[in-house]
Amino acid sequence: MKFKVRKASHFIFLGVGVVFLLVSFYFVGNYTYEVVTLEMTRLPPILTKQAIQYRLSPSTQEDLCHQLGFSNDDPFCIPGASWTKNEFHSVLNEYFLGRDSAPITFEEFDEILSKYRYRCEEPHISNVGTERFRCIYKIHYSVFEIYAAFEDGFLERLYYPTNGS
Fold first, then answer.
1. To the nearest 10°, the Cα dihedral for 56, 59, 63, 66?
2. Are residues 39 and 68 both part of a single domain?
């Protein structure tokens, strides 16, 4: 008989402990939700990873300004300047794709950004018979990641992943 009473008391103690934990989780969860909700109302209405300002290291910024041929008073090259990813992408798109002259070749593109090349895929022949391949360039710890697509040795387009960083 003593054995059964002791076993039942263990179950009662365990049940009280589980109820206590559930009630604690409920109150902690509600408090956390209220604090997070309050803090979220203080943020600007649109805050995405594309809108966050990033600052390049001085050596990377200096190298890119030199490679792209920008002057020291260019907004892109002011020491300590910071940009959103969209601003950075616009600078690169304007420089590489906004030219009135002949399209840039892979060799010209890679000469400028070779220091940041992560990898290039092997060229392959597309359905329309052109040779195509992509290269990935990572600048500043992958914060500014650039995918460059080449067709028949010329830069076709730049695109930028939006996930992760």
1. 100
2. no
